[in-house]
Specification:
This protein is an alpha+beta fold and 618 residues long. 50% of the residues lie in helices and 11% in strands. Pfam families: DDT, WAC_Acf1_DNA_bd, WHIM1, WSD. This is DDT domain-containing protein. Residues 445-470 have a biased composition (Basic and acidic residues).
Amino acid sequence: MPLLKRSTFSLLKPPENLDPDEPVFQIRFTKEIFQHYQEYLNRLNLYHKKVWTCEVSGKSNLTYEEALVCEQRAAVKAQLLPKELIVHVLQMVQYSTLSLTELVEKVYRSLLLDFFEGLELHAKKYGSEAACKILKAIDSGSTKLYEVGWLGQDNAAVNTSVVKADDLIRKKAPASRNQLKMFIRDSTSKISPWIVNADLAKKYGIDPEPPKDIMNGESLYKGRKRFANVEGASKKLKKDEKLIGLPVKYPIDDLLVKPAADDLVLSKRPPLSRGFRVPVDSVGDLLMVWDFCLSFGRLLCLSPFSLSDLENAICNKESNLVLMVEIHAALFHLLMKDEGEYFAYLLNKKKMLKVTLVTWAEYLCNFLEMKRKEEFSGKVSTIRRGHYGLLDTDLKLKILRELVEEAIITSAVRGRLNEWIDQKREDARKNREEKKLSMEGLAENRRNHTDAIQNDKECTKNQHGGKEQNDLNILLSGKTGDEKMFLINHLETEMEQQSLRSCHLGKDRFYNRYWVFRCEGRLFVESAESKEWGYYTTKAELDALLGSLNIKGIRERALKCQLEKSYDKISNALDKRSKDVEQKLLEEVDLRRSTRRYAQPKEDSSSMSFLKYINKWK
């Protein structure tokens, strides 16, 4: 449950003796029921304040609903902790009286330094390194020995050996601190001391009985001290809940906006198009992969391609399409050049051949074997047999997403991102300086103008009258302020051109997100659950969307402002795409009517244009 200002918060119980025919008000995401509208409004307003904290991840400054979504996502991530680590971590957590930060650091160091049963790592074997799993520790006096099982392709132990501790090799920490923090929060019911959830304790054989020092109260002093102010926090919580009814001052949270008689008539929001070929819950992966490839195309040595081409290529059943091979090869080259985990894995397997149309599938199999994910492991043999094209579309996109996520943390990509950030900061600094100079220039102009008028009054009557008018014209013709503002606008344009291609414009009343991509003439809409996507393709739809946004709400006011600011660019992109689509349709119609249509290859269709892709930056 989300925390209110990091304190426990309880939902209201249903009213007693409620008449079945009595009209009530219910909050959608908590299911709480109210008999009076003002009470409902007060509670809803509290939920929409950014005072809530995700109980699992600890992320704060959220609304109640955002905290709920955050908890769901964090709980999923928490369950991604490798299974072989769970028992060891839970044993260290059970009845610990350390603070969360201290406990996470202790567990992290243990995973980094200790060897324990179930841990998967590498060990020296016949002069090389091989993946293995510790089966048990062997007590042999001063020398630490471990029985390990050597892991095969399906991650199962093929045979066993006894190795020394010095021969065990750990290439990286098996879990991050953040992952451990989420797992600990998600798997415990109390925090002073930490107590593992009863079902988890039973499942993994964790002793539910507290140690003697806990029973005697010897280790609880720190915990009691940390929670000594619970009573004060509770009083403050009750005070926050007693919201005073004040006159409405707009903008307010969108869900609290009520129609009024003097409101402008809002147009009906246009329905979204959903003409995707990939599964609806894979559209986010499709956009992420495409945007990364275009944003870092020069770094990847991968020339641009359209979103439609990528989508059609992903859905095609051919196994060696040039576009798909080039994307994978570019990502493999980047990972190998970084000399990270993938590079080390290939060196261990002694497979450092050139990535080609023939060898790329083997490199992909090596990557999937390195990742050791269940959803991928069963498909390695299919790819190795040359049937990559037969994989499900969503699985192809998941694999590409894994590759992109590995690519993002390479030193080359991080370096490029740092360059962009530094450039933005530098441009912002120049922007501020230009604005300052602009204001100083305007002030100087005013002073000079005032001095000129004063001098004119002090001039003798026999002074040449035309000279002063000439000086004033020269003064006004400088237009220092306008020139500075023009330069500022030019700098802003340059900054935009150097930024990443994707742009999050804002959210609507129901938290749906709106996105534009510079090379794609569509306005994309992502649902609040991040599962469903849609888009608008025409200027008329854009106008109708603008007319449907209520500026009395905080989110829709900000969204409308961003859409109006980028209106010309977005509408021009929509028009251009519409004309391109219309032109392609006309060309296809002409092709079908042509007497030479049977001599034309199938790939002349716009939906098959991905077959013509050539990597010009290779």
